[in-house]
Design goal:
Helix content: 40-55%
Radius of gyration: 18 Å
CATH topology: Rossmann fold
Number of domains: 1
CATH superfamily: Vaccinia Virus protein VP39
Order of helices and strands: HHHHEHEHEEHEHHEEHHEE
Largest sheet: 9 strands, mixed
CATH architecture: 3-Layer(aba) Sandwich
Number of helices: 11
Strand content: 25-35%
């Protein structure tokens, strides 16, 4: 994926348009979740950390408070502007945000003790290339941390889930099942140290706000989710609570190490 790739251009347009809504999402700024992810990484005060597809930089800033240097890279300039402003407001001086492509990050081999990516792998058309790049940049004694949602292992449920996601945000490529992640890790020469999961609960209307679908797409999403209440067609545990549709992603944090380091 080159810097002029149509999908990357679409991501820039989508997240520039929806940046304010994205930043308001509870899951984006959830301090408990951010601190938990950083804790799982095993980061130490002397470490250097890279946050891939950092978005508005909340994970990068959480790392920066606990390490020697943190660098966030993202393809959307507006996200980087927001991240730099927030880092300055927090008086963080060991942090840097750079414009870049997740498939070609440009740092020397084994530059970082921790290489992380949160809530972005479902946007990558070539997740294998991004993972290989992350592994290249991690020291042999370091860790790769990947947090994202999981799709169902049932192909029909996974296809239904991904259809809903793409209607909300057309830059969504595909949520992967756990077995698909495991195959990517094996191909990249990474081994899982641990992989805790957590339900991520959403109100449907609030969730749609982050993607900004058209009125027609929003109606289609509403109907698809209604149709998944009685029979779970999506693997998203769709339910009605106090008259509102709610659902849950299965969030996962994969903490990985180069296989030859074990």
């Amino acid at each position: 994926m080159s810097d002029s790739d149509p999908h990357l251009d679409a991501i820039r347009q989508q997240f520039t348009k929806q940046a304010d809504a994205y930043v308001r999402m509870r899951q984006t700024t959830d301090e408990r979740g951010l601190q938990g992810l950083v804790g799982l990484s095993g980061v130490q005060p002397q470490h250097r950390v890279l946050d891939v597809a950092c978005g508005p930089g909340f994970l990068t800033m959480t790392f920066a408070a606990r390490c020697a240097e943190a660098i966030g890279v993202d393809a959307t300039p507006h996200f980087l502007e927001l991240a730099r402003a927030e880092a300055a407001a927090r008086s963080l001086h060991n942090i840097e945000f750079r414009l870049g492509n997740a498939e070609q990050l440009g740092f020397p081999d084994e530059s970082f003790d921790v290489v992380a990516c949160r809530a972005a792998f479902h946007h990558f058309p070539n997740p294998d290339k991004v993972l290989q790049e992350m592994k290249r940049l991690a020291r042999r004694s370091g860790r790769v941390v990947l947090a994202d949602m999981l799709a169902s292992e049932d192909p029909a449920q996974a296809a239904y889930h991904n259809r809903v996601e793409r209607l909300c945000d057309p830059t969504h490529v595909r949520a992967l099942a756990a077995s698909e992640f495991e195959a990517l890790f094996a191909a990249a020469g990474l081994e899982v140290i641990f992989a805790p999961t957590v339900p991520l609960d959403y109100d449907l209307d609030e969730w749609m706000d982050h993607g900004g679908p058209s009125a027609a797409a929003a109606r289609e999403i509403q109907q698809l989710m209604e149709d998944s209440v009685e029979v779970d067609r999506s693997g998203l545990r769709v339910r009605r609570e106090q008259g509102r549709l709610r659902f849950s992603h299965t969030g996962v944090v994969f903490v990985l190490q180069p296989a030859d380091a074990l």
